Amino acid sequence: MPTTPAAPLVILECLVAGTSHRDNLAEHEPQLKINQPLVLRREADSTFDDWAVQVHTEPAAGGVWLGYLPEGRNETVARLLDAGKHISARLTHKSWEDDWLYLNIEVLLHE
């Protein structure tokens, strides 16, 4: 009997940090959709955060750099990425608060 793949495990729910420093987000925000898959990329050479993890849209969606996982909440995800685990994210909420784009995501661990 074939087994179906297990649903990914939500390992972190958080805001995307640094969206106010991404100059192009206002033009890309209309294309961001709730439940949209996102790509996490390790930035091991960051001078600001040893555990930096970038958040991007998928290449098929333009590969837009949205920001980072928040410092202080990113170490486990960074270690899992460093170990070669399949980690992704999905957008769960978006809204504008003045000139700040508020993006909430879930980080997912896949088998």
From TrEMBL:
InterPro entries: HIRAN. The keyword rRNA-binding does not apply. Keywords: Hydrolase, Metal-binding. This is HIRAN domain-containing protein. It holds the Pfam family HIRAN. Residues 13-109 form the HIRAN domain. GO terms for molecular function: hydrolase activity, acting on acid anhydrides, in phosphorus-containing anhydrides; nucleic acid binding; zinc ion binding. It comes from Hymenobacter jeollabukensis.
